[in-house]
Amino acid sequence: MKKEKKDAFLNYLASQNGWSTASNLASYLKVSTRTIRNYVNEINKEKKLISSSQEGYKLSNWKEKGSFSISNDTPSKRMNIILKELIIHTEGLDIFDLSEKIFVSISTIENDVVNANNIIKPFHLKIRHKKDRITLIGNETAKRKLMSHIISQETSRDFLSMKTVQAAYKEYNISHLKENIVSILSRYNLFVNEYTMNNILLHLVITIDRIKKNNTVTQNLQLKNLKGNLEMNAAKDIAEIIEKQYNITFNEAERYYLVLLLSSKTTILNFKSLTPETLTNYLDEHYVQLAKALLDKVHESYYIDIYDDEFFVKFTLHIRNLIFRAKNNQIAKNPLTYKLKDSYPLIYEIAVFISNEMQKIEDIVIKEDEIAYIAFHIGSFFERKKELENKILCAVVCPNYYDMQMQLVQKLEDKFRGSIEIIQISAEANDLTLTDNIELIITTLPIKTEQIPSIFVHPYITEVDYDHIQNQLLKLSERKAIIKVKNYLEMFFNEELFMKNIYLKSHEEYIKYMSQLLYEKKYVNADYSDSVLEREKMSSTAFNNYVAVPHSMKMDALKTGICIIINDKPVKWGEETVQIITMIAINKRERNIFSNVFESFINILSEWENVKELAKATNYKDFMNKIAYLMEKI
């Protein structure tokens, strides 16, 4: 039995809370049930780890959980690990060492490198394989973008969903808890979005579980900074309702951290929220500086920025409590530890890195369950980042008369839940902090700014107001989408391959001219024009709408690219007349990546109205803006 199969088998059992049937195991590992029985016998010969019954199999020695290496038995997971290792080790890796580390053959890694080079091309990176060494070639900015991309691939919309949390903490009714919290926050004019609510619920469920198991925070803390504010009153009510429901007691320290949690997560409509700048009013500055140092080390080692205000506040509060638990020998059990290790290996690895650094600085021991909680924060950050990419970030300006501000915010959230994210709320326009993050201002007051688009609405919003907002959101979303498409197109379009007003005598001369340019830029071999001319002899590649698309019959290009000539005056192409000539060179290994671009591009060129618009392009930048806009419209 190969080590990687053994690890995958044991990791799967470790991630299950109960029995696993032979058929489920066989399906997961893509083997027969007979092979599963053989695996069990072979493992138990070395050491009795697995119990069996009519219900299936499970680990009998729970101390062994967590001692297995992460399974790398899927190509995508393995490729991500290889790329991550190459980003971290800028000097390169010995391919034999890498083979031993991830338990696969040299030939498998070589094949992964070929596939990985196709994947990382949009990042303008390349893996160079020289003798026994592989190295990632490219600039630091590109490597950072790639690392963020790899980690964001691991997260999903259900990373921290209530379904996931409820499955882990079955004894608590999370839906009922949520209803109570929403009601209490509303009473105190405190507003949270759905994502933030999930984080608050997770924190509360973990807190309830710890208190029930006699693991309480017992620091001697002063609450003078917090007395009388809205979060203090809301936290008091939430604690009381939880105490009554679960027969537990929130001591003063537990309430303190609940207040801080609400301050960092709620949009306080008439009170300044807890921020990185005000954190030291409530916590020892040591923890704020420690949090900054840990995130800086992550940036240095993994080339990623894990930072926004909300994350930093949450992270700092969390490590303060973690250090207290570690120094007081308190165990914070996490029922999702093994799921996180198996499903999100790179996120978990960063959590391990942070924990190791913290252990050295604070002289403490951090257990696996605590590492998993750190992974929660990191995974949530990337999940949040991914979610916000598809939303328009808004600021709201509205006076806080009675509940006018709260009503406006809630109506906007309800109406445009999937389209907007309100990240600032202000009673006065002058109090807004204008940043690059804000994409739209929705205001009930006159506002003077041309820097950011703004929409005036009535304090008690009308249907006409909704229509105006929707129209503006469509424009902003369209602009975002065009930028995204444009970035994708730049994989295959190149300013060096774009030309205006090149007038030659025949289509043969155009083919030779463009083939030579592609050859000089290392897209094709020297004889590329021969195969394009051979294809042209069979049938003209000119459309009947002023476009020619010469190409080879083979996918024999060194890399995929598109060479373009746009002429103000039409030229002869065999029996046809053309104004736009696009020579397409396709590399066989990149055909799947290119196929969507190719299909959309050809569809655009087949419409005369589109051709007329593209022919007006004055330069490469203008052309890219036009093609991105047209592709987004398909």
From TrEMBL:
Organism: Bacillus chungangensis
Domain PTS EIIA type-2: 491-634
Protein name: Lichenan operon transcriptional antiterminator
Boundaries of every PRD domain copy: 168-272, 282-388
Keywords for the protein's UniProt record, in alphabetical order: Activator, Repeat, Transcription, Transcription regulation
UniProt keyword annotation of Transcription present: yes
